[in-house]
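question for whoever is on the cluster today: can someone run the full assembly for these? two chains, 651 residues total. i dont have access anymore since they changed the login thing
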Amino acid sequence: MRQGTRFGFFLLLTPLLLWLSLLIIIPHIDMLLVSLRERVGVGKYQTSPANYLTFLQEPLYLWTFLRTAVMSVLATLITLLIAFPVAYYIAKMAKGRVRSLLFLLCLVPFWVSELVRTFGWMILLRETGVISSLLQYLGLAERPVEMLYNDAAIMIGLVYTSMLFMVVPLITTLGSLEDSVIEAGYDLGGSGASILREIVIPHAMPGIVSGCIVVFMLSLGNYLTPTMLGGKDSLWFTELIYSQFIVRFNWELGAAFGFVLLFLSSFIVWVMLRLTGQTLEKTIG
Amino acid sequence: MTPDLQCIDLTKRFGETTAVRDVSFSVPPGSFFSILGPSGCGKTTIMRMIAGFLEPTSGDILIKGKSVLDVPPNKRPVNMVFQHLALFPMMNVADNIGYGLRRAGLPKAEIARKVGEVLERIGLPDIGQRRVDELSGGQKQRVAIARCMVLEPDVLLLDEPLGALDLKLREHMKIELKALQADFDTTFVYITHDQSEALVMSDQIAVMNHGRFEQMGTARELYYRPQTPFVAGFVGDSNRWRGRVERADSDALELRTESGLLIRGNAHGRALGAGSSAEIFVRPEAIRLSHSETDLASFDNRLKGRVTSLLFNAAASRVLIRGDGSAGEIEVALPQSGEFDGLSRGDDVHIGWSGEQANCFAAGTD
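^ ran it for u. tokens below:
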């Protein structure tokens, strides 16, 4: 009997183990090994940290890396600033059907693929696009205005793509805040600002942190949006990885870049958790 | 003396429905005032209007003689203990209590001193650094009161704060609340649907139904001299009959119930003439139970009957008795003096009550 349950346990665990080992652990180990070898001749390799040194010595790589990180943090903050009032309204102020409807409206854009959504933004922002034409029609611009291929366009795309992943955890945590707790704040003499600072935000902290982690990861690892909205000069780190693998066929350097990105994202998440005094368990569970 | 709290013709409508209708009352300083009523009667609406979370449709609210209608909730000199207490879970006990003081801009040392004092007063001097979820139900209760009292409000509102506690603790907290009220010497306005909470603690009670005050008075007045059938039925238990007045001699009435029983009752000043239909309320504990008829000579209502069932509930035990030749059952309190320990179903007993104790009301006003 015991033998039987144990067998069943492993049988049920197998798909997960296969998934984890075949698709995540083994490729990563292989990638790590690839990143740590240096080509010394045709078909000849030796183990060395040369690829990581290349990354550190080339200013363009470092610059791109830094830019990606800063832009991602900025995108996360902007997303938080926009999503918080939206989530607060949906969770605390809207009632019944209005609430479901608003939540649905947040969800609707995510029924189409990211590619289509990004094309949507291109149609709006490009030189011959909707906004440009409108500005000319209203006489606010004399000639077509190009709004694509700059950092602002990338930022718009990143924020738009990540919005849902911030709104959902915020609605969940804000929804669990009892109305009477907010009322008690007012009753005891609190102003709107102090209640937000001392009651609402501390309560929503787990949601804020988990939303920020997800949005930051998504922005940092996003390839499509920066490439399409930022054009060739967008200098997003994922593009460097792509070009090493596909264009330059330099898998060793590409793998090293991949690991640098992994460490960077882990590090920033760790810093974020430390700064806000949250733990990963509290945020996820 | 100016009353601490005064409501004048307070009315609140939500669309078509009127939640509170022309309610007027005043609460003298330092007293314990309760609003008692079934759920949905509008008592929470009154409380939220006093606290400032709802605006009355018409009428006025005065605190210490000044109208507070234009004052937002965070500026009103009233504080509220919420039904589920609404302590701030993200703060420790000291920060919870100090919240209002911090908002009032008091210096840190002053806040610490006041918080320490109030914790001392509620008998929990060492829990300042504890988290809210580490406290027991009774401790949370006291912290919630301390959080309001530290601000020295003119009026403290309490919205069924004992509802979430278990029975034993609730009994204990009733006494404690009353003691705290006397200790702080602040006006308490307490709303509840639990009559025993209201009866035990209050100086004045208002019984509320369908958005109106049915009667206002002391616990004794409500219990002995209810002025409306609703109050008679809601406060305490009652045997209830419907009947027709056969003879009226000023307040003393003789009535015939629908089941044919003849009852002598009292109108206590209400207009009830011969021939009008009436409702009669007699409390189970006002009925004397006896083995022999001679014990009951002093009562003007006497009845011989048979025990149909015994409802044992410790001190609140009841005997159901079916009178000879009548259809209804009469609920009688079972005396716990030992005399009726052997009573069992089917026994013949005599019951009697005085006409003074049978409150009669004109029927159809409930």
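summary bc i know u wont read the tokens: Chain A has a mean pLDDT of 87. Chain A touches chain B at residues 178, 180-181, 183-191, 194, 198-199, 202-203 (CB under 8 Å).
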